[in-house]
Structures are given as structure tokens and as C-alpha cells.
Amino acid sequence: MADAWTITEPSLKFMQQTSQLCRERIDKKTAPTLENRYIERAPHMVSLAEIKEAQARLRGIAVRTELLQSHLSQDGSANLNRKLYFKPENLQPIGSFKLRGAYNKIASLSDEERHRGVISYSSGNHAQGVAYAARALGVNALIVMPDNAPAIKREATAALGAEIVQVGPASSERQAKAEQLAAEHGYVIVPPYNDEKIIAGQGTMGLEILADLPDVETVLVPVGGGGMISGIATAIKLSQPSTKIIGVEPELASDAQASLRSGKIVQFAAEQVTRTIADSTQSVGAINFEHIRRYVDDIVTVTEDEIRQAMRLLAADPKTTAEPSGAVAVAAFLFHRDELPQTSINVAVISGGNIDPRMLAEIRS
């Protein structure tokens, strides 16, 4: 009998056959089998180390937004046992968290890639993030925006030096146009959410939340394309797995909730999702979805009226004034108590405050 370290002839033959099969499956010259396609497309899961690297890059660029304790009551009644803190990303230089991911992505590019210039597609906040980051790093930027993007966001993007190309309202339209222009002119694409560097940049918010409030039990995060919740969930779950991560999105654009619960990406028609006042709504990205499936506990939805009510309450303080998509997490805390973890220490991310002045006046009236 062979000892524990002796390789018998049948075993050696099996190992050789297995090794050959593995080489065939990952050889790019081999016809693309199902296994090969999966290997090539499997997303890289962002690590805690990558988020900490992003944090170092962003030091002195993004504002270190400190948590603000809220005194808003839940479901119309004061509950002293359920505290809420705001993460006010509306206080970033561009009025949105998007600066974090955009800067981390562009700062990670090689000199050759920066020389070619960058292109992105966005309804507004990511557009400003890319424009701001590109200007700070001396890189030319082109942004594809929908023709229904709020004027305040389009004008702010142009003021930061980016060139703008307009297309129709569907997120697929602006992505397709950006990819076409990138192929024609060699621009480097800076996606709004479906990218590991973007996720790592947004994840720095999670590190800050834990540093400010180590006892946090639940974090409520707005969901659009999924970059922010992917990053925050990854940072927090890899540091403190007991903390619950709950995504929030409008009922009219609840594709992320449908995707999480069905176990596969579900896309809604543009005609439906553009009915919500929350303009930062996109289909969940494939890379983001893998992070959401692994780290997010649940996703809840809020109505248009609930979003408006949350905006009205937040607008009472200039430090917490929120655009519609920036107010959804607060709306969930205020009006969906029974759907949320019954935890005492909670954080809601105010993702942005770039609200049209006319809408703000209407909300306040």
C-alpha cells in the first residue's frame, strides 16, 4: 500500500486529465463554453483593503461628513428607543456622494489612460462627480446625460468643465452612447455604479459611519444602480457583520428589490421608472448585484408622497436638505417602521441635495 505521500499511477492520470480540462476551460483560445464564460465574467468582490485604499486617495478631496442626530419622529410618534442619525452626503462639494467613487476611479487610472480622457453617463450627480474629479486631476471629461436631467445638474456639470452630450431618458440610451463614443475616440469609461473602483470609493462612507458610531445596528441606504449600497454594505459587513444593511428605493423604480428577492437582475421599463420624482434611478449593475446579494439584508420601497414628506421635513435644516433620491432612506425610517429591523441605533444616508429651487419651494409650501 502506498503511504500518504505516494501518488499512484491512477491518481496521477486523473490529476493530469483534470489539469488539462481546467486549462481548456480558461484558455481564451478555446471555444467559449458556459463554464468559460462564467469564469471570464465573474465579478471581482471588492475587499476591505481596497476601500481603505480609496479612503486614502480621497483624503483632502471628499468631505469627511460627520453624522447628525435626527429628532424626527417615526410614524408620527416619538420613540426614544429608536435613534436616527443622518449621513449628510449632500454636504459634499458637488452636493452628492458621487464624488467619492468618481475620484477613486479616475485617480486609479494610468497616465496613458488619463491622457485619453474619460467619458461617463449620468442623470446628474455622477456627472458632476466625474467633472469635478477630472478637473482636479487635469483630465478631459465628456458626459452623456438624459434630456430630462434636472437643469440644475446639467448646468453644474458644464460649469465644472465637462462637455455634455444629451440623449433620451432611458439609462440604456446614455450607456450605449457613451460606449459608442469611447470606442470611436478611445475615452476611458467611468461608469456611474457598475465598477469595482466606484464601489470602493462609495464604501468609504461605510468606514466613516463605523468610526463615528461603532454601535450602529442598522444602516439605511438609497438604491439606484447599486454602487453606493454595494460599497457601504461591503465596508460594514466585512468590519461588523452584525449591522443590518437595508436598501431603499421608490416603489415606481423597485427593480433592486425585485432583483434581490428573485435572485436575478430584474429590469423595469424606462416608462415606469421615469415616473418617480427621484431622478437617480437606474437598473442594478451586475457587479453591484453580486455585492448586494452577499451583503444586503433587505430592500424596502417608499411612495412618492412619502419621499415628498421626508424632503419637507429635511428641508427645515439647510444641512439636511435633500433631493428626492437623497431622501428615500429617511422616508423608509419615518413611514415603514414595521418593515425595518427593530433596532435602536440607526443611520440613514442622505445621498444628495441637488434639488431644483422650484421643487424645493413647492416642497416647502
Which key terms come to mind for this protein?
365 residues, alpha/beta, Rossmann fold, 46% helix, disordered N terminus
Short description:
The chain is of the alpha/beta class and 365 residues long.
Structure description:
The chain is of the alpha/beta class and 365 residues long. It has two domains: 48-96 and 195-364, Rossmann fold (3-Layer(aba) Sandwich), CATH 3.40.50.1100; 98-189, 3-Layer(aba) Sandwich (Rossmann fold). Helix content is 46%, strand content 13%. The chain contains 16 helices and ten strands. It has helices at residues 9-26, 34-41, 48-58, 98-107, 111-116, 125-137, 151-159, 171-185, 196-212, 227-239, 255-262, 270-273, 286-295, 304-314, 328-335, 357-364; strands spanning 68-69, 83-88, 118-121, 141-146, 163-167, 188-189, 218-222, 244-250, 298-302, 345-350. Strands 1-2-10-7-8-9 form a six-stranded mixed β-sheet. The termini are far apart. Residues 1-40 have low confidence and may be disordered.
